[in-house]
User: What shape does this take?
Amino acid sequence: MFKSKKKTSVLFVCLGNICRSPTAEAVFRHKAKAAGLDLKIDSAGTHGYHIGKQPDGRSVSVGVQRGYSFKGIKCRRVEDKDFTDFDYIMAMDTSNYENLMKVSPEEELHRIHYFLDFAPGDEKEVPDPYYGGKQGFELVLDLIEQASDGFIRHLKQQKPAG
Ligand code: 4NP
Assistant: This one.
């Protein structure tokens, strides 16, 4: 009998889990599927302001225009078990990154990354669009699309285990 290998898993994290990280979940799920990658993909927030809610209507509106689906995405908070359940924990900005680094068990810190480290350029921050206009939501999508493409290239370069 072959032991089935656990799927590679990715958790996207922002502050509220209603704008940036659900957008990353929707975009990356779409692009990973198109690239033929079978992954476990989820998102969560470092704070619990909107638990149980669907993604922000403005994120959904600009995302759907570009062909992404937000179906089934529901806001949740980061939990202790995320630090062992997910291979990659992708922070959207420095504040998310630092919050994650503070609460992660020491031995799991290597799982935490800036998502934009997989995009071209030196920018690390996906700016919080919550209090701004539509342009901010479009910029979030632009950055997340670039990082998703880069991360897919990274995953495809990984040597298969075994
Ligand atoms: P997100 O945006 O972190 O991209 O989901 C925010 C959503 C809600 C709030 C802040 C940022 N809030 O203050 O309620």
Remarks:
- The mean pLDDT is 95.
- The pocket of 4-nitrophenyl phosphate is lined by residues 14-20, 49, 128, 130 (CB under 6 Å).
- The domain at 9-156 is CATH 3.40.50.2300 (Rossmann fold).
